[in-house]
Amino acid sequence: MGRTCVLELTPRQRRILTRVRDHHPKPHLREKAAALLKIADGWQVRDVARFGLLRPRARNSVSAWVARYRAGGLTGLKVRAGRGRKPAFFPR
């Protein structure tokens, strides 16, 4: 068995994550906020990754979200510049 990931949230952090989960325009932030709230409620990372979200995710991904949230708060969950596929066609 792996280690249990514990995430303790202040009431303010919980309110912010709930608002992000319910109203943020970016779907990836809504999903990450939902995962963090479930982990804070006592779910194990593997359960959140397997069937706690709309689609299954890797345990390492969910663990990385927790680590990035601990390190940088909500800003740590955003997709950093330069990530993603680079364009193959450059229009003039």
Describe this structure as you would to a colleague.
There is one protein chain. The protein is mainly alpha-helical and 92 residues long. The protein has one domain. The chain contains 4 helices and no strands. Helix 1 runs antiparallel to helix 2 and helix 3 crosses helix 4. It starts with 10 loop residues before the first helix and ends in a 20-residue tail after the last helix.
Name a few traits of the molecule.
92 residues; mainly alpha; 4 helices; 53% helix; 0% strand
How would you concisely characterize the structure shown here?
This protein has 92 residues and is mostly helical. It is built from 4 helices and no strands.
Sheet of most strands: none
What general outline do the C-alpha atoms trace?
A: globular
Give, in order, the helices and strands. Answer: HHHH
Secondary structural class: mainly alpha
**What separation lies between the terminal Cα atoms?**
55 Å
Count of DSSP-assigned helices: 4
* Percentage beta strand: under 5%
The number of domains: 1
Give the oligomer, counting copies of the same chain as homo and different chains as hetero.
single chain
Poorly predicted parts: none
Give the overall average pLDDT: 91
What's the helical proportion of residues? 40-55%
Q: Can you lay out the helices and strands and say which pair or pack?
A:
Blueprint lengths: L10 H13 L3 H14 L4 H8 L6 H14 L20
Helix pairs in contact: 1-2, 3-4
